[in-house]
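Q: Got a minute? One more chain.
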Amino acid sequence: MTTGMRLTGRLQPNELKLAFQDTSTLPELQNRLDNAEKNGQPNFYDFTDPEMMKWFLFERRHLNRENDRSASTLREYERELVMFVEQLLLHSAEIDLDVAFIIEGSLFKSLQSRHIRRYQEWLATNSPYVLHKGAYSAATLERKTTIIKAFLTFLHESGYIQEPIHKGLRIASVRKDDRPNRDLGPLDVVTLLNTFRDLGHPVMFTIVHVLTTTGIRNEEFCTLQVMDLKVDGILGGYYLDILGKGNKRRHVPLKEKVVRSIRMFRHSRGLLPIEQAKPEEPLFTTNTGRAYSPSYLSQYVKKEISSLEHVILSDQTMKITPHVFRHAFAIISKINEVDIYDIMRSLGHEKIETTMIYLEKIFEKERHAIHSWKSNDFGDYI
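A: Always. Here it is, folded:
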């Protein structure tokens, strides 16, 4: 297709990336919306494709800014949407975007449901990533589909496009068997803790200890500051003041031995004790004294654990990342008969269904029919 290439004059992916870094134009976009309403004109009648993408990402939906999308969510949405546009423009012929004519110079207004379906199929089977690195996981395709669908739905419901092209997307749900095994139980965690203790590796010992006993997310761990470790004036001890997904705060109590591990970590890194450190300093740092990034922490944990060749875990094929210890928190809590709603709240989940995904395999095992067999029904063999 050649007609689609004319769109690049108005919608450049590189320019989009730069534009999204500048939120100073948001008040102007709001003023244009207000004037359209005042003058009886349709909302977004004079917006461009890039401006619609920017408004979708950064529109203030809550009076309290902290309740809007978090920085990490914005980065994820921005990355996926820029990639979506870039692929439509650069691979239009492969995707077969047989656009008859360009409507008002807009890519989004020129697309129809069949184009979205073809794009999704191309993404899953013939996109550059798939051809060079192999198929996307089911979870990745689900995430990409969810973000693109949310954006296209917004375009239609806002009146910017007339056709509900989001309906061209096929369902990309993840089956239980599609999910990678992340079930790490207490025996495996204790094995890792014992190993790092015996190796004299306080950094990895503390990372495993903190992640497992708190269930906090990778990014939550990385963004912790000294001031987020607080004394609990009600119950005693310490807790972490966590700013989680969706800018929601929760207080995560710390066991005394976990606080000791944190102190040990800081001492091994040559950091000041908690009581003497500046409040805004990172609670955990790399060997360069900087806060971890989520990607670096994930790589570091995978590298250190994969180097333990003599350690035998229950699933030798499992790729252990910081997120796996969040699953371990849920599993160990369930084994200790914690109410599932308490587990949900402790993890900072909004929906019980998300927590159920963490626990579906342990539920399956617990409810297996074999547990109801009586020993006298099968002689001495059970």
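A: Residues 186-366 form a domain with the hpI Integrase; Chain A fold (CATH 1.10.443.10).
Q: Perfect, thanks.
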